[in-house]
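S1.2 Input.
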Amino acid sequence: MTVSDLTAAAPACARGPVRRARARHFAMTAPRHFAVEYAINPWMDTSVPVDVDLALRQWETLRATYIDLGHTVDLVDAVAGLPDMVYAANGGLIVDGHAVLAHFTFPQRAAEADAYAAWMTAAGWHPERTRHHNEGQGDLLVAGSTVLAGHGFRTDRRAHDEIAELTGLPVTSLELVDPRFYHLDTALTVLSDEPATIAYYPPAFTADAVAVLREMFPTAIEVGSADAFVLGLNAVSDGRHVVLPAGATGFADQLRAAGFEPIGVDLSELLKGGGSVKCCTLEVYS
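S1.3 Output.
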C-alpha cells in the first residue's frame, strides 16, 4: 500500500477540518554507524544488541515516506565513531536563512556539531554557535513565527536568549521535568503553521509550561501516556500528513479526528537510542 492509498483510506466525514500540506525540506543521516555504546538518556541500554541492518531498513522507509509525500530530503554523510548522528534533528536549527549549530551537552556527541557544520557550510549557510548548550531541533521547534524552546535536561535556558538574537524570532521557553522526555521533540509536535497547532504530553512539562501552552494553543491535542511512552510525539507534520511512530495508535486516532492524516512508521530499532521520526529529521524552515 502506498502513502497515497493510506491518505485516501479515511473517509472525508472522519477527517474533521480541512488540513493543507506544504512541501518541506529535510536533512537526514543514515544510521550506518548506529550503536548504543553509552547511555545518556533513559531509553539507552548498552546491554541490548542493535541490528544495524534493520535500523537502516527502517530509516530508509522513513526517508521514502517523505519522498513519496513530495518533500525534499538532503543526505548528510554519516561519520564513523558518531553512533548517534542518525538523530539529525539535534544538529542545529535552520530557519529563515539563519543556521544555528548545536552545542551538545555530552562529550560523546560533541563532534557531531562539526559534521553538521560542514554540511551547512557546503549547502551555503553560515552556521553560528551559541556559548551555552543547545541541542538543535531536539529542543528548538518552530511553530508559526515563534520558536518553542525546551530546557531542563539538554539545552541550557540561557541559550534561548542567544537563539532569539541569532534568528530574530521570539522564543518561548518550556521546562521539561521527566527524564524520559529529555528533549522537547519527544514531548511536543508542531502539527501546522497557520494557524500554529501542536500536540503535546502535559506530564512532561512543569505546570507553568503547561499553562503557557494552553494559553498559546487552546486547540492543542493532549496525548496520553500510552502514546507518549512509545515516543509517539516524536513526529513530523507537513500540515496535513503526520508521520509518527507506528505504535502511537491512540495519537493517530486523535489526529484523524482533528483532520490530519497519520502515517505510522516502525523505527523500533532506532528507539533503542532514544529517538524516532522527528529525531531522525532536521527540517530546514523557510
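S1.4 Remarks. The chain is about 25% helix and 20% strand.
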